[in-house]
Amino acid sequence: MYSGKRSESSATLSGLDSPVGAKVAIVTGASRGIGHGIAERLLEIGYCVVANSRHITAADTLEAGDRLKLIDGDIGSPYVAKLVVDSAIHNFGRLDLLVNNAGVFIPKPFAEYTVEDFRIATDTNLGGFLYVSQLAASQMRLQKSGHIISITSSIVAQPVAGLTASFINLTKGGLESVTRALAVEFARDGVRFNTVSPGVVNTPMHQVETHEFLKQLGPLNRLAEIAEVVDWVEFLETAPFLNGEVIHLDGGAHAGKR
Ligand SMILES: NC(=O)c1ccc[n+]([C@@H]2O[C@H](COP(=O)([O-])OP(=O)(O)OC[C@H]3O[C@@H](n4cnc5c(N)ncnc54)[C@H](OP(=O)(O)O)[C@@H]3O)[C@@H](O)[C@H]2O)c1
């Protein structure tokens, strides 16, 4: 577990605060759930991390330190996206990994979605990808290396009868498609784009009372655990020939009807 304290062996890089050779990552939506798990794992394996969410300081779930900076704010705002990327560069000198994890799930019958639902879903799921990815990809292009991972959802590939949430398809479907487009656009710049597309994950997003219903939506009759998503993010970092990939981590839900 990362303690937030400086390790005795840490040195500085170009006068910056990052241990020499440490990789640098940004994780959005890191105050709880999947993003929190990803940020903790990256710290454990030696990364310097900039963690963002709207209330990440108040959440008090990660302790800022020499290798962890916290940035409060809505990642759908271009201003916050710039603060986050600037924090990585100013504090740690580079950026190796961006995990676009912040997202909202608004389950409703299609005809009942409101203008406000549309604004929240597009601002967070699309705007929250767009601005920070543009800035991150530009920095990575300068470095000639980097990796951008987005977290989507298995219902993009296989909508489920009885689970009406088409705004996920509308927004996260775009992320899966743009992952492929950008993997091609940035390949010669050394920047990779991949996506992890989970089924239902055991996070604070779902109230415990809904778990039994949600479990029976998937072939394996269980929820994914946060660590299973985190394992894939870590693996993708170690697999340089994987690019433009969508990893379906859903117990087979994407393969067909249960
Ligand atoms: N849980 C699942 O079953 C499941 C399945 C498939 C895909 N996913 C995807 O996985 C990602 C994480 O899901 P989760 O279950 O871990 O969600 P969660 O428990 O609801 O946590 C969401 C995180 O995102 C942050 N966040 C929300 N809106 C934000 C914004 N506008 N700007 C910055 N941060 C924001 C929240 O913190 P603040 O409130 O402090 O902003 C929180 O840290 C989402 O993209 C979700 O769509 C989840």
Structure description:
The chain has 258 residues and is of the alpha/beta class. The chain has a single domain, classed as Rossmann fold, CATH 3.40.50. It contains seven helices and seven strands. Strands 3-2-1-4-5-6-7 form a seven-stranded parallel β-sheet, sandwiched between helices. It is globular and about 50 Å long. The termini are far apart. The site of NADP nicotinamide-adenine-dinucleotide phosphate (NAP) has 33 residues, from helix 1, strand 2, helix 2 and helix 4.
Main sheet record: 7 strands, parallel
The CATH class designation is Alpha Beta
Overall, the morphology is: globular
Low-confidence stretches: 3-16
CATH topology, what is it called? Rossmann fold
